[in-house]
Amino acid sequence: MTEFPPLPVIDKLTGAERELADAARRGLAYVTDAPVRAVVLRELLLGLRGPVDPRGVRLGGARIAGTLNLDHVEAGTGLALVDCVAVNTISARHARLPWLDLSGSRVAGFDGTGVRIGHDLDFTGVRATGSGDFGVICLRDARVDGLTVFAQAEVRSGDGPALYLDDLECRAIKGLGLRASGAGDSGAIRLLGAHISGEVFLGEAVLANESGPVVHADSAAVDGDLSLAGATVTGAGGDGALRLLGARVGGQLDLGDATLVNDSGPAVGADRLRAGGLYATGVTVTGAISLLGARVDGQVNLGGAVLANPRGRALSADSIQVEGSFFGEGMKVRGSGEYGALCLLGAHVGGNCYLEGAELTNDAGAALSGDRLRVDGNVHIEGLVATGAAEPGTIRLLGAHVGGELYLEGARIANDSGPALYADSLHVGGNLDLTGASVAGAGEAGALRLHAAEVGSQLRLPGAELANASGPAFSADDLRVGSYLELFEVKVTSSSELGALSLRAARVHGSVTLAGADVTNDAGPVLVADRCEVRGSLALSGLRGTSAGERATIHLLGAHIGGQLSFTGAELTHRDAQFLVDVEDAVVDGPIFFPVELVGPAGQVDLDGFRFGSLGDVTWREWLDLIRHHTAAYRPGPYQRLAASERAAGHDGNARQILIAQQRDLQRRAPEAIGGWPARRFHWVWGALAGYGYRARRTAAALLLAVVAAGGLGLWAGHVGDAGHRAAERTSDLTAARGAPCTTVELIGVGLDRGLPLSPGVRGRCDLNTGIPAGQWFTVAIWLVQAAIWALATLALVGYTGLVRKTA
Hints:
Blueprint: H1 15-26, E1 29-31, E2 35-37, H2 38-46, E3 57-60, E4 63-65, E5 79-82, E6 85-86, E7 90-91, E8 96-97, E9 100-101, E10 106-107, E11 110-111, E12 116-117, E13 121-122, E14 127-130, E15 137-138, E16 143-149, E17 154-157, E18 163-164, E19 169-174, E20 179-182, E21 189-190, E22 195-196, E23 200-201, E24 206-209, E25 215-216, E26 221-222, E27 226-227, E28 232-235, E29 242-243, E30 248-254, E31 259-262, E32 268-269, E33 274-279, E34 284-286, E35 289-290, E36 295-296, E37 300-301, E38 306-308, E39 315-316, E40 321-322, E41 326-327, E42 332-335, E43 342-343, E44 348-349, E45 353-354, E46 359-362, E47 368-369, E48 374-375, E49 379-380, E50 385-388, E51 395-396, E52 401-402, E53 406-407, E54 412-415, E55 421-422, E56 427-428, E57 432-433, E58 438-441, E59 448-449, E60 454-455, E61 459-460, E62 465-468, E63 474-475, E64 480-481, E65 485-486, E66 491-494, E67 501-502, E68 507-508, E69 512-513, E70 518-521, E71 527-528, E72 533-534, E73 538-539, E74 544-547, E75 554-555, E76 560-561, E77 565-566, E78 571-574, ...
Parallel strand pairs: 1-3, 2-4, 3-5, 4-6, 5-9, 6-10, 7-11, 8-12, 9-13, 10-14, 11-15, 12-16, 13-16, 14-17, 15-18, 16-19, 17-20, 18-21, 19-22, 19-23, 20-24, 21-25, 22-26, 23-27, 24-28, 25-29, 26-30, 27-30, 28-31, 29-32, 30-33, 31-34, 32-35, 33-36, 33-37, 34-38, 35-39, 36-40, 37-41, 38-42, ...
Antiparallel strand pairs: 83-84, 85-86
Helix pairs in contact: 3-4, 4-5, 5-6, 7-8, 7-9
């Protein structure tokens, strides 16, 4: 190894320098306004001026003449230059010092690349202005066993970083009130790959970079907290003002009450950040906060934050993992672009999510994008005010999963060109509550859209206001609700052929109520619940519904109601027609409450295939009147269902009257179904004489009259004669000059013998005399009576056996 001769020691010291050396040997601080040569300080640290007290070389107020070069110096004592002035850069590359204190000094710069400091490195109050790619103060690859302090320091660079701290290792960085400004892509403060075993505190700092990031700390590791509470950070460019890509913060990232500005990119770029917590209450951000793929082991708190980004997302947190809760109460977020001011696509929150009283705005897309968001606890969005635009919707929760409750009471959600709340395939383990909410959207997707959504308990919208001027107000086809669907006193305005409230194929395990609701649709039905299944009751009591278009106001095709269906107190109006209720093929297992005044004098209902358990507050006669006079066309099903209901209640007489009314309605409104003219005439006679087979007594009475008529004709014929003969007389004398009269019994027997299908056997002694005109006329009359008897006998047989009753 080559040995270099020791550097020569300066022969002459100034008075101030001698006093400094003396003070150093005695462990005293020396203050002077006289200049002190830099080389003297180096000699003192190297022990070339004799032993120095362990308390170190401490100089205050002096002007350092020359360049203080401490490169590779291994000093046994520390150095303090307090309130001094160093016109040249201080260099301590790869030096080893117990401690170094430059507090209050004005320096041209400090190069501490690879320096090793055994205790603290103090830049408190330092004023440094310089330049260069490696910063005004450079601690690249430095090791500080104690604190690195920049409190109240002012460091400025015109063409590079102010602080270059890449790969720095220290116990903590203290920078309260630090003022630092830099330039370029390297950032004002660089901490790439740095490892801080304690905290980094930059509270109330003022940091700026007009052409790049401010704090550039990709892959940095801070075992404690990283705090910029109350700081002002102003940067530029696409890398972010506060850049923490892939960084790790073991404690909390604290941005409380900070002001972060980047007019041309993210204000905070912290994708893949790993932090113990994120605290940013009251933060003001111009630009974006980007936390893509970040992981927070504790809570995220953005309560009261103000985030604004006119160029895109304000908070971009796709796939973020938050083990605790997400707090955003009262935050104000304004963004732009398709997918959100507040974007949580695919995020996972292990606790609860709080956005009560938040204000979210996006003039070109979603205010909140939460597709595939997973929240294991509850989501509180009470009092939220959200305004979005276009098809993505204002609040997007497509495929989201909420393990507990989702509260939206009193929320105000609006979108003038798309859905307001867009939540297809949303899963909520508990209740989904929109009590008193206002949801206003546009388009055929619907204002409140919950297609194929699943709510484990109750879906509540009492007092809510839903509006859509160009589509459904509430579109929830294939919805699944574990308990109740409550639309009590909801106010709905819509303009859609699909219906103001669409619940096609929905399944509700409890009851559904629209009691007191006020629903208006100027282009279609009020309620469309085709193939809907409600295990409990469907209550439309007090519903005020106004519809238009070709379809019925209330549409329940193929629906299945396990309990009762109630229209009590409802008021239904159809602006274009009188088609009010369509329950075709619907099934109600319980009673139906359907006041007849609901349809008015001209209203119509479709009851074809409708089945119900029993009639509630409507009599069978009123329901029969509804079938006969308030259905568009004849259908046999409604009559049969009503008759079955009365028969099941033990009212067979009522059932027969209903079925007779059915046949009369068939003849009145669908005569072509009976057949041609003869069939229709027979049908009329059948009804008149036999009540269509349901009044057999009438047939029997008519048959008895025909029999009496037959006997009467026979008796009459025995008293009408011509030229000595009578129309009915003894058969042995029919060719004699004068006929022999029959007895009265024989004459009646002749009529019965001729008229009845079965002969009483008197015609061998007495019969009609067809040789005279009177006998011929009585013969024809008897034939007619015989035909009537045959017909009436047939009708009687049909009536009693019921073999060929018509049900067409």
